[in-house]
Structure formats: structure tokens, C-alpha cells
TrEMBL record:
PROSITE patterns: HTH_LYSR. Coiled coil: none annotated. InterPro entries: LysR_HTH_N, LysR_subst-bd, WH-like_DNA-bd_sf, WH_DNA-bd_sf. PANTHER family: HTH-TYPE TRANSCRIPTIONAL ACTIVATOR BAUR, HTH-TYPE TRANSCRIPTIONAL REGULATOR. Pfam families: HTH_1 (PF00126), LysR_substrate (PF03466). It comes from the Bacteria. This is LuxR family transcriptional regulator. Belongs to the LysR transcriptional regulatory family. The lineage of its organism: Bacteria, Pseudomonadati, Pseudomonadota, Gammaproteobacteria, Enterobacterales. GO terms for molecular function: DNA-binding transcription factor activity; transcription cis-regulatory region binding.
């Protein structure tokens, strides 16, 4: 496709970029039909219009399926940043009218919903009461992905374990989370001694998290025979429940299986650690009334 310069970004371009973003999120034209409320042929025409406007091929479509080109991935990334900037402008205007309207984008690590203190849940409830027109968007992802989203403006706030702070972000302690070593009811350790000793523990396969850990947590995992990895706590739970592995889980998350006698903690008095869960925002962020009200609801 012949390259050309883009003279200006029009309302029509923004509409086309929003359609493009939706198609990318859905993974195909057909999957985006119901969400967009238009036919596949109309979506295809819009994509062709956008490619002509930008002077580059954004995606491959056909019998082989939908796939972004390298240029398409770059355009998607830049359009995400632009949409975030537009949303920021809208929030500034709304703030001038003393109205809490607009989108609030939150990134949270998996499995915090079972935390009994429920500070985030209560803060969301409080925010909803004072701003019923606020659109809440929650994405569950890894700590690294949340930090990237905060840095590039896609997220307003994040909740994640505090391990190694990233320059450019502010971290505020929310609460502590205790984790213990667990085995399932079908594991040989389940009916054995409450503290089988390090030598015996080293004979069993264990799980190592692939996300960032503190030095203390790394040391505890080095004592085990880690033969599997998991990207999040749900993945660790899956492996523990096979009966083939032992691994560390937050006690509030493991409680649902402990109550059903499907798991138990191994040597809980000594094989445990505490993680600080932090609320994270970007340093030097622009004033945002929704974010400030949410932080107030968290008592931060």
C-alpha cells in the first residue's frame, strides 16, 4: 500500500480507530459484529477506509483468519495512547463542571477479591455512590503489565504486590497479605506430619512463580524442588490441586479449598511470608477528580 502523510485526525478517523481497536480486542470481524452492531462487510469497509487514510496495511484477513501486521500493532499502540489522552481531556472538562463522569481504568492482580479486608471493593462502592455515571473498567493482569499500563496512561490506578518499585510510579501500602505453603488432599504430605522437615519437602515437586518476588520469597522457594512455574496465583492453585505439586498461596485465596478439606498448609508456623499489597499511581499525573475520590475512599 502506498505510504502517505496524515494531514489531520478527524472525527471520522477516531470512529475508524475505535472500530479497529474493537476488532483487535475481539480477534476477528465476525466476533466484533455484535459488539459494534454492524455487519462484517461494513466492518471490512471501515477497515479499508482506515488503511487508505493511514496509507498502510493494518491487518491480514481472509480464510487464514485475522492477524495484525507490524504496522497494525504500532497503530493500535498509538491509538490506545491517543484515546487515553482524549479521555484525560474529557475528565478535565468534567472536573470543571464539578461532575464525576468519564472512565476509570483499574489494573488489579488476580485473586485479590477473596481478601477479607475488601478495601478495593468498598472504595469502588463508595465511588459508584458519588459518581453513578462513572464507567468502571477493571483489568486483571500481572504486576508488570499493570505498571506498563500506568506508565503509558492506559490505567489510572493499579493494585499489586510491592516487590521492586519502578521509577516513575508512586506506591502506597494498602494491606499485608500472608502466604503459606500448601498441598492438596491427594498429595502424600496431606495426611503426614504438620511439619515434615526440609529434607522431606525437597523430595516433592514444587511450583515457582514466574512473577517478581522479594528476596525472602526467593529464599523460601530455593528450599523447594521447583520443577514447574506459574504466571499467577490461580495457575499455582491449578498445579497444587493436581496432587503432584506443593506451592505457596495467599491464605485468603487458599481458604476456599482448605474449608472443603481439599488443601492444607504445610509447616505453616515457619513456611510463610507476608507481601505488601500496594496501590500504585503514576508520578506527576494530571489532576483527576475520579482518581482522587477513589484514593480518599481507600483512606490514602
Amino acid at each position: 500500500m502506498k505510504s502517505k502523510s496524515l494531514a489531520q485526525v478527524t472525527d471520522f478517523d477516531l470512529k475508524l480507530l475505535r472500530i479497529f481497536k474493537t476488532v483487535c480486542e475481539c480477534g476477528s470481524f465476525s466476533a466484533a459484529e455484535s459488539l459494534l452492531g454492524i455487519t462484517r462487510s461494513a466492518i471490512s469497509l471501515h477497515m479499508s477506509d482506515l488503511e487508505k487514510r493511514l496509507g498502510m496495511r493494518l491487518c491480514q484477513r481472509g480464510r487464514a483468519g485475522f492477524a495484525l501486521t507490524d504496522e497494525g500493532r504500532e497503530i493500535l499502540r498509538h491509538s490506545d495512547s491517543m484515546m487515553a489522552a482524549i479521555e484525560g481531556f474529557r475528565q478535565q472538562v468534567n472536573q470543571m463542571h464539578k461532575q464525576l463522569r468519564g472512565e476509570f481504568n483499574i489494573g488489579i492482580i488476580n485473586n485479590l477479591v477473596t481478601q477479607p479486608k475488601m478495601k478495593i471493593t468498598h472504595a469502588l462502592d463508595s465511588l459508584r455512590e458519588i459518581g453513578p455515571d462513572i464507567r468502571l473498567n477493571i483489568s486483571m493482569s500481572t504486576a508488570a503489565e499493570i505498571e506498563r499500563g500506568l506508565m503509558d496512561g492506559r490505567l489510572h490506578i493499579g493494585a499489586l504486590p510491592l516487590t521492586s518499585p519502578v521509577s516513575g510510579l508512586d506506591y502506597a501500602h494498602l494491606y499485608d497479605e500472608k502466604s503459606e505453603l500448601y498441598c492438596s488432599s491427594t498429595h502424600p504430605l496431606f495426611s503426614g506430619d504438620s511439619d515434615p522437615g526440609d529434607d522431606l519437602l525437597a523430595q516433592y515437586d514444587a511450583i515457582a512463580p514466574s512473577f517478581r518476588m522479594t528476596a525472602e520469597t526467593i529464599g523460601l522457594h530455593q528450599m523447594l524442588n521447583c520443577t514447574a512455574t506459574a504466571s499467577d496465583r490461580e495457575g499455582i492453585a491449578f498445579l497444587i490441586l493436581t496432587g503432584c505439586f506443593i506451592g505457596y498461596l495467599p491464605d485468603h485465596f487458599a481458604a476456599q479449598w482448605v474449608e472443603k478439606k481439599l488443601m492444607r498448609a504445610v509447616a505453616p508456623s515457619r513456611l510463610n511470608f507476608s507481601s505488601k499489597i500496594a496501590i500504585v499511581t503514576r508520578k506527576g499525573r494530571r489532576p483527576n477528580a475520579i482518581l482522587e475520590r477513589f484514593l480518599q475512599a481507600l483512606d490514602l
